[in-house]
Design brief:
The protein has about 325 residues and is an alpha/beta fold. The chain has helices spanning about 10-20, 25-30, 35-50, 65-90, 105-110, 110-120, 200-205, 225-230, 245-250, 280-295; strands at about 55, 60, 95-100, 125-130, 145-150, 155-170, 190-195, 220, 235-240, 260-275. It folds into three domains: about 10-90, Winged helix-like DNA-binding domain superfamily/Winged helix DNA-binding domain (Arc Repressor Mutant, subunit A, Orthogonal Bundle), CATH 1.10.10; about 95-155 and about 275-300, Periplasmic binding protein-like II (D-Maltodextrin-Binding Protein, domain 2, 3-Layer(aba) Sandwich); about 165-265, Periplasmic binding protein-like II (D-Maltodextrin-Binding Protein, domain 2, 3-Layer(aba) Sandwich), CATH 3.40.190.10. It is about 40% helix and about 20% strand. An eight-stranded mixed β-sheet has the order 4-3-5-10-6-9-7-8, with helices on both faces. A two-stranded antiparallel ribbon has the order 1-2. Pfam families: HTH_1, LysR_substrate.
Length: about 325
């Protein structure tokens, strides 16, 4: 008997629109017009006899049935992709890894770590993608992720890797090395802002236990990598996780005029979907990274990732 199935193009259109909650962004991803997305979804709704989306003011919202259908369709499309990749590569998808993490972590920390893994496991192909902290592990295509947070993700298993510490850094061109500043001195400089964490400077001030009534403003950047490059070029002072700038501090392109790093209260975790916990390559990567982290710790969780502390601390 012929299977009663919607068209694959309609499912692609629906999955993209549901993922972005936007016909426009779905159209951009699939390379078709917005009206084409709308038409595909209308055809799918007529085929199913269901309403998959409704409008809440200007926002596109999944109906309850639409949300449940999205989860199932996303998993089904993932499986179709897996079996297609198996056929093309002649090997099981279980031997490969799609790894997601934050953009700056992917560009600064991860490459230093992956060399060891690739040397030991050359037969496990790795693909690295950007991932958001609010990842949906019930539907994500990622096999494994390294994320910042407090260790709470639904439908996932997580393992703590290292605690996050925040440090204020500056270029020697902006603040001469050896200068000792107090937290309230940040008002003397442009403070480079993280668009994704707009309250980060205020959080650091609270951690520093100071009362501050000055301005908190400066150019906003999407990622820490951009902020670090801005600091290197003397645009302003930057507040960043300390392990992102370890090399810059060691070589002197940045220094810490406002003192040593301070624990932020958050950490970085290895996270993967519960539904993929049987995948052998995930277990291999997890065990390797956790072992690397244990070996790298000396007296603190962050020993391997600490900035080289120079004698510019305010307490000196």
């Amino acid at each position: 008997m012929r299977r009663l199935l919607p068209s694959l193009s309609a499912l692609h259109a629906f999955e993209a629109a549901a993922r972005y909650l936007s016909f426009t962004r779905a159209a951009e991803e699939l390379g078709i017009t917005q009206s084409g997305i709308s038409r595909q979804i209308k055809n799918l709704e007529e085929f199913l006899g269901l309403t998959l989306f409704h409008r809440s003011g200007p926002r596109l919202v999944l109906t309850e049935l639409g949300a449940a259908y999205y989860r199932d369709v996303s998993l089904t499309l993932d499986k179709l992709q897996e079996v297609s990749m198996d056929a093309v590569r002649g090997r099981s998808i279980d031997t490969s890894l799609i790894l997601g993490t934050h953009p700056t972590l992917a560009s600064r920390w991860l490459p230093m770590m992956l060399g060891s893994f690739i040397d030991r496991h050359p037969n496990i192909p790795i693909e690295v993608q950007c991932a958001d902290t609010n990842l949906d592990f019930e539907t994500t295509r990622l096999d494994i992720a390294i994320l910042r947070g407090v260790g709470s993700w639904l439908h996932a298993r997580c393992f703590k890797l290292l605690n996050e510490e925040l440090v204020v850094v500056a270029s020697p061109k902006l603040i001469p090395p050896g200068t000792q500043c107090s937290p309230t001195d940040i008002s003397d400089y442009i403070q480079l802002q993280n668009a994704g964490q707009p309250s980060l400077w205020m959080h650091w001030l609270r951690l520093s236990k100071v009362n501050y009534n000055g301005r908190l403003q400066g150019p906003r950047f999407a990622y820490f990598d951009m902020i670090i490059n801005g600091a290197i070029n003397g645009l302003g002072i930057a507040l960043v996780p300390s392990f992102y700038v370890r090399q810059e501090i060691e070589c002197g392109t940045l220094h810490m005029p406002f003192g040593a790093p301070i624990a932020s209260g958050e950490a970085y975790f290895l996270v993967y979907p519960e539904r993929k916990s049987h995948q052998p390559s995930i277990g291999v990567f997890r065990d390797w990274l956790l072992k690397e982290m244990r070996l790298s710790r000396h007296s603190t969780d962050n020993a391997r990732f600490y900035c080289q502390r120079r004698p510019v601390q305010a307490s000196e």
